[in-house]
Specification:
Layout (H helix, E strand, L loop, with lengths): L1 H27 L6 H6 L11 H10 L5 E4 L20 E4 L4 H18 L13 H5 L19 H9 L10 E7 L12 E6 L5 H8 L20 E6 L3 E5 L11 H11 L3 E9 L6 H13 L3 E6 L6 H18 L8 E2 L8 H11 L6
Parallel strand pairs: 4-6, 4-7, 7-8, 8-9
Antiparallel strand pairs: 1-2, 3-5, 5-6
Helix pairs in contact: 6-11
The structure holds guanosine-5'-triphosphate and magnesium ion.
Guanosine-5'-triphosphate binds next to helix 7.
Length: 365
């Protein structure tokens, strides 16, 4: 008997503890809209003729309906898509349902499903040449026709992009080697294009994007500046070789000057150097110093502005005009045409692929 009473007392204590936990739980989630609240706020519309009381009973769950609310962790739904703050709902799962509750929960889950859908059409994506999308913002021509080195049609660009897709044995796209200095560079007769610029500007990301159709070809990128320490050579069949150079600036390799200067002096088959500028941040003073250095070697080069997905078109236009000014006033070996790309969204990349094919004469082969 005493055993029984102590067992009952323990049971009562446990029940009280459980009650307090549940209370805590509901206090924690009290700011989450219940289906009742949602019904009141028109998120779920009650059926015609339903009284508020019925509605409360249906939705709040007087009959111990098991409704589990779970906060989306850090305001993200499971698919990882960020919800708009105004459409921030807890996820809802029902275990026992009445038909009207089912219709409510279905409506609710439909809303959640719509919110969780990945974005389909690319919003604000650029056209073939992203510079043309900036033209409506200004009356003077940003890049006059006469200064366009390439201005291909869509079909021509399509042909060029085929070069960046592997085709069995005939056209292999592969990583060749990493060279700590030009003495270790591979011997080859194919025309070469070297990608240069400040560390973290997005050189490796651009290469990754150029080769995104190539399975098993990994181009390593990093958020940390100074990631690429050696010159990495990638062969695009017999058409060309692309070189991912280490960046200058923060955490640049100790022998950076040796690697880049010697490469620019020695490399006979270098057809074009690509100098990358951050399109979002604009041209910086250290970029102009680097441009002066490249000018000294009298090698042809082109300016490519990347990260165009990161800024508004007005800011981008301002930065493009500043770059065009630098080209006009301070350069001789630089091509007048500036290319706009995003290594993340791929905007402008097909045009750049065409440009690479054009300067290496790959479309004639
Ligand atoms: N939004 C956006 N981010 C980019 C773009 N290109 C590169 N990034 C980001 O910028 C960071 C640096 O990119 P990397 O490609 O590693 O830069 P890097 O020029 O190769 O840098 P180093 O190897 O250090 O010289 C990464 O976090 C990229 O995701 C772009 O076009 N858009
Ligand atoms: Mg890199």
């Amino acid at each position: 008997m005493s055993h029984f009473s102590s067992f009952t007392r323990r049971g009562v204590i446990q029940l009280r503890w459980l009650g307090s936990r549940l209370n805590c739980l509901f206090t924690k989630y009290r700011d989450i809209p219940t289906p009742g609240i949602m019904a009141q706020t028109n998120l779920i519309k009650p059926k015609k003729g339903q009284t508020t009381q019925q509605e409360k009973q249906l939705h709040i769950g007087k009959s111990h309906r098991s409704v589990l609310y779970r906060k989306c962790s850090s305001k993200r739904c499971q698919t990882g898509h960020k919800l708009h703050p105004t459409s921030y709902f807890p996820r809802l799962q029902t275990f026992e349902t009445s038909s009207s509750f089912l219709s409510c929960s279905r409506r609710f889950s439909n809303t959640a499903a719509v919110l969780a859908k990945p974005p389909t059409a690319k919003k604000n994506s650029f056209s073939l040449n992203p510079i043309d999308d900036l033209q409506p913002l200004i009356q003077v021509p940003i890049l006059p026709q006469i200064e366009r080195v390439v201005d291909p049609t869509e079909e021509e660009v399509q042909r060029a992009t085929q070069l960046f897709k592997p085709a069995a044995r005939r056209h292999k796209i592969e990583f060749v080697l990493s060279a700590p200095n030009p003495d270790y560079a591979p011997e080859n007769n194919t025309p070469e294009i070297a990608i240069m610029g400040r560390s973290n500007v997005g050189k490796s990301t651009l290469l990754q994007c150029l080769f995104r159709e190539v399975p098993d070809l990994e181009v390593k990128t990093s958020k940390t500046p100074g990631h690429t320490k050696m010159a990495n050579f990638f062969r695009v069949g017999r058409a060309m070789t692309l070189v991912d150079m280490p960046g200058y600036g923060y955490r640049q390799p100790a022998d950076f000057v040796h690697i880049v200067e010697d490469y620019l002096i020695q490399r006979k088959n270098l057809r074009m150097a690509v100098f990358m500028v951050d399109g979002a941040a604009g041209i910086a003073s250290w970029d102009t110093v680097a441009i002066e250095m490249i000018e000294d070697f009298k090698r042809p080069y082109v300016l490519v502005m990347t990260k165009i997905d990161k800024v508004s078109r007005h800011v981008l236009l301002r930065n493009v005009l500043a770059v065009r000014q630098v080209i006009k006033e301070r350069t001789k070996a630089c091509l007048p045409q500036v290319f706009l790309v995003s290594g993340v969204t791929g905007d402008g990349v097909p045009l750049l692929q065409y440009f690479f094919a054009h300067v290496t004469d790959s479309l004639k082969k």
